[in-house]
Amino acid sequence: MKLSLLTDQLSVQETTGAHPFVDPEVTAVCYDSRKVTPGAVFVAIEGFSADGHRFIPDAVEQGAVAVICRKSVAVDAVVIRVADPRAALAQLSCRFFGQPSDRMTMVGVTGTSGKTTVTYLLEKILEKAGHRPGVVGTINYRYAGQTFTNPVTTPESLELQEMLRQMADSGTSHVVMEVSSHSLDLHRVDGCCYDVAVFTNLSHDHLDHHGTMDRYWHSKKRLFNDYLKPADRDHPVRAVVNTDDPKGRDLAATLGTMALRTAVYGEGDIVPLGVVRDLTGIRGGIAVPNGKIPFDSSLVGDFNLENILSAAGAALALGIPAAAIAAGIDATGCVPGRLERIPEGGDRYVFVDYSHKPAALENAISALRAHTTGRLITVFGCGGDRDRAKRPVMGEIAARLSDLTVVTSDNPRSEDPLAIIAQVESGVREVCTRRLSAGALTTGWQEKAYLVEPDRRAAIASAIATAQAGDAVLIAGKGHETYQILAGETIHFDDREVARQVLEAMNEAGA
């Protein structure tokens, strides 16, 4: 593709450089100078840890024929200055890969919690309807029988557009995508037009990036305001909104008839009917505008009922038949790290969940609390180099709702694990002052209490060892993750794997 064709939609401030009037053939688009090959266009992004302008000479030396940047530079290549190189990267990526999202039906799911589960449900529903879905999400990216690991929930625009092109070329018919607030803020999904958008909920999260809840909410709303296709005669409904959430009610009011409203507790277009919940799943019916959909899901908790309604609403907006919706919900088993039960626990109900933010943790504990006949034990910690304000809040939630809270490390990253724990403990002590030692657990405990154990493996072992028949143990924070980051070092660590090892050892010992 000629450079002039690739860049003809950019808002160019100035074109300079050694060859400002040359129109070279472009063979690649890059924003990492280490990946530049001869014929590439290099986009200099000012990131959070490094400024891409520093690497422009390296990119040109490696064969870049043009540079897209914000600052003036003097190099032996065409230099195109723009106001926002990150936004330019998205435009270039869409153009270079041929606007691949236009060839598929696009569904975007946003919200603080529930995005991953909704995408898993929709994937199964689409499969049951005979479609070929692809998924872009927190746990992985997958399509056409292939699965890829992911560094972030929504990839950078270049990788996203390349992946969408591969999906389209492989015959993928529908793309179900988790759309994070970061991706909306940082232009990662620019160029994508969504056929249906889903809002799950909004609660405290990512304030280290957004600064305020208002700015966080503004980013979320952009999916509906800036990226959603307008309603038309064939598609009168484009949005599905959880109106149990106050922000969802505001959003639904703005969208009007363009939105289907879901509600577990209030009035809506999609609501539960005769639902039965326990620690093995949720069963019942869903009332929809044109009838009722029966379902029998192995997912646990009211928040997963919200996710089921959201997925059903999105499927209805896509024109999926009720029978396929029911079959897809029933076929969705355990979502990795989302209240995932460890079956080796037997009559000790052991769950692993990704809840690493206040509302998600409260939802997970409350879901188990409602159906636990015995005691509820929660193991959790907070990550380092992230929003510090939520640490005492999460400590208070865990201690208030649990019989025993075990405070441990999550991913401390560059921070002191004990300093993080101290901040969490300050919230715990607002509602629980009885601190136990690890040794005290072996002799039993009766009153509400908490324990501090910085070693996550030891914390999980202590929690499971003290559990009795009928008790529930929630291991929260890391979910599907298979690593732990300590002082810059990444080690293998999987909560599910550790829990199984502990349970297997206990079963062998007859405990």
Please write the CATH class name of the largest domain.
Alpha Beta
- How many DSSP E strands? 25
* Overall form: globular
Distance from N terminus to C terminus (CA atoms, Å) equals 67 Å
- Give the class from helix and strand content and strand pairing: alpha/beta
CATH topology of the largest domain: UDP-N-acetylmuramoyl-L-alanine:D-glutamate ligase
Can you identify the CATH superfamily of the largest domain? Mur-like, catalytic domain
**What is the domain tally?**
3
Query: What fraction of the residues are assigned to beta strands by DSSP?
Result: 15-25%
Helix content: 25-40%
Work out the radius of gyration.
Answer: 25 Å
Mean pLDDT: 94
Tally of helical runs: 17
From the coordinates shown, what is the CATH architecture of the largest domain?
3-Layer(aba) Sandwich
Strands side by side in the biggest sheet: 9-8-7-10-6-11-12-13
Poorly predicted regions are none
Largest sheet: 8 strands, mixed
